[in-house]
């Protein structure tokens, strides 16, 4: 079956008074039905911006320029009239935003906010939509769901607000759920519950999931495919098992080394030295070269291509030159 979402050469640039910011550079991937794709990387790597570009929630030109192709089935979302895009947004593609306290409307009840997409996209009456909202709240684990419909966001705990956001996202039974940092600011126990809930609901609703996170450790049990992003670009893509067992890019290796482990014999947590580059003034060559412990001369001079390491594992690093091959413009190995 063809993928339900295919992104080709996606570029996102912001115009500012101090220059142009290249937030996403040449991002490519495909998402299949029922698949979970994890996109990981530090803050500022372009993960959330790419997700907002799928839903066309970024500012219009000239403030923001989005180039490339985002195919949802056979439709390029970037070329759709806004009226058609609104029919897809929240209905066939839904998103759990990063911070539920700021994403939920503080002056509307939880019930009204979950019922709204049902009335807009499914044509339900207010009464039927509220009944469905109660059922969804109950399904995501909110006790006494019917009475909680009348509560406002500030009356919910952080974990409950996130569950309400999930209920809202699932209200129209979307084909794709984008979960942007769904466990931010939650304690470890609640994080595990939210991730387990997303896994359960994915099977129940037969959704594809794009899981965006800075914490590579939390996706190990969830993802089928992984993309590691740095400075607006993908630096490594691989099936989950392959990436965890054979991380190839030094940045990926650094992220994995920073995961705390009870079995570790190390006395201290490892970290990646330095900080991500200024996106208005990226370094020449590989953008990770100023922080890379394995940097070579050509890393600082020439931008590396993606090397195909086999079994759908690719890495954007000169260290892979002897291990992989570079696809030509037709996608064949050369």
Key phrases:
alpha/beta; 334 residues; 4-stranded antiparallel β-sheet; disordered C terminus
Which structural class is indicated by helix and strand composition?
Answer: alpha/beta
Average of pLDDT = 91
Euclidean distance between termini CA atoms:
27 Å
Query: Strand order of the main beta sheet, please?
Result: 6-7-8-3-9-10-12-11
Q: Which overall shape is indicated by the principal axes computed on the Cα atoms? A: globular
Low-confidence stretches: 328-334
From the alpha carbons, calculate the radius of gyration and give it in angstroms: 21 Å
Give the total of beta strands: 12
In DSSP terms, counting alpha (H) and pi (I) runs of 4 or more, how many helices? Answer: 10
Q: Major β-sheet, in short?
A: 8 strands, mixed
The share of residues in extended strands comes to 15-25%
The H/E string reads EEEHEEHEHHHHHEHEEEHHEE
Q: In which range does the helix fraction lie?
A: 25-40%
Question: Would you give an account of this structure?
Answer:
Helices cover 28% and strands 23% of the residues. The protein has 334 residues and is an alpha/beta fold. The strands form two sheets. Strands 6-7-8-3-9-10-12-11 form an eight-stranded mixed sheet, with helices on both faces. Strand 7, helix 8 and strand 8 (208-213) form a beta-alpha-beta unit. Helix 4 (110-122) runs parallel beside helix 7, helix 5 (126-139) packs across helix 7 (158-170) and helix 7 runs parallel beside helix 8. The longest helix is centred in the middle third of the chain and has 18 residues, at 188-205. The two termini are 27 Å apart.
